[in-house]
Structure formats: C-alpha cells, structure tokens
Design a protein that fits this description.
The protein has 8 helices and no strands. It is mainly α and about 200 residues long. The N terminus is likely disordered.
C-alpha cells in the first residue's frame, strides 16, 4: 500500500459524516439539559421561601420548560435522516426518511437558546442568573461541530441579542443561586473543552 493510499484511508477515518455530527449533537444536547436540570435543582435546594418576587415563576416552571425542550429536541435529533439510518432497518414497513439532519440541528440549537433566554429571565436576568454562562456555549459548540458560517453568525447574533435584552442592573445577590451559578459555569466550561478535545484534528 502506497503512502498516498494510506493517507487517504487515514483522512476518511477522521472525517466527520452526518451520523457522527448528529450523534455528537445528541450527546451535547443531553449534557446541556443535564446541566440545566442539576442547576435548577441547586436553585430549588437553596431557595428561601418567599425570596423571589411573587410575579416570577419558581423552579417548577423551569423544570416544565426544560422537560418540554428535552422531549422536542431529542426527538428532532433521533428522527433526523442521518440518525434514523441507525434504527430504520428494523422498521422497514414504515415509509419514513426523517427530518433533514442539518435542519434538525438548527432547530434544536435555536430552541435551546430561546429556552435559555426564558430561564435566564426567570432567575434574575443576564447579570445574576446562574444560567447566563450557558449562553456562550452554543456558538462554540456550533464551531466544533463544523456548522456553516451563516449559522454561526445566527447563533452568535441571537445569543448577543437575548443576553442584552435580559441584562439588568446589579441587584441584591440571591443566595439561592450562588452555588448553581458556580456549577453551571464550571460545567459549561468543561463541556466546551471536552467537545473541543474530542473534535480536534
């Protein structure tokens, strides 16, 4: 076997195909939802009754939004045309080709960013919410997953807009969110570092 043939095989082994990109997006989505869920539990654990203003939904509402996001987003990825190739052979009688995988990922990331904007608003705004650090995870993940340039610009612009809209003046620190803020920040950093490590050239 010549060096050129060996290099071609090596290149094919390291190339990203739609199945691997959707699988990486699925793992990332589960990780992000886990971070949100655990962070919300920490808010709930340390929350003092009556501390939050009466017009702000409490953690029960956050968990409901997170669950709804999880169901919709995971179904979009599982039923994408790229990932459906894994399970479709055992369901030959069903004439289903799946959602276009690129559109599925686009929809999931936009849904995540919108959910995050709601969570940040529910928990004090960009300045004090424990979920703020997750805002900047999505453009980074899109970069690691080799999303197109216009999508990267879309995610970045949407994050910047929602972050700015929900930004509020410094308020009295909420002791119920301090530990959650630390956890979400550290977990977000670890997640992006891990994705960057496994997708490196």
């Amino acid at each position: 076997m010549g060096n050129s043939e060996f290099n071609e095989i090596l290149h094919l082994g390291h190339s990203l195909n739609p199945e691997s990109i959707v699988a990486a997006a699925l793992i990332t989505q589960v990780s992000v939802l886990a971070i949100v869920f655990i962070g919300t539990l920490f808010v709930r654990i340390f929350e003092e009754p009556g501390y939050l203003p009466a017009d702000q939904p409490r953690t029960n509402s956050i968990l409901v939004f997170t669950l709804g996001n999880a169901i919709v987003s995971l179904l979009c990825l599982l039923f994408s045309d790229a990932f459906s190739r894994v399970w479709r052979p055992i369901m030959k009688e069903i004439p289903f080709h799946g959602i276009e995988w690129q559109q599925a990922i686009l929809g999931v990331w936009i849904l995540d960013i919108l959910l995050l904007a709601i969570l940040v608003d529910f928990t004090g705004g960009s300045h004090s919410s424990p979920f703020t650090s997750l805002f900047f995870v999505f453009p980074t993940i899109a970069l690691f997953l080799h999303e197109s340039g216009w999508r990267l610009v879309l995610y970045t612009g949407l994050v910047a807009l929602l972050f700015s809209v929900s930004f509020r003046k410094p308020a009295e620190p909420d002791p119920s969110t301090m530990f959650s803020y630390w956890f979400v920040s550290v977990a977000s950093f670890i997640l992006t570092t891990a994705i960057g490590f496994v997708t490196r050239a």
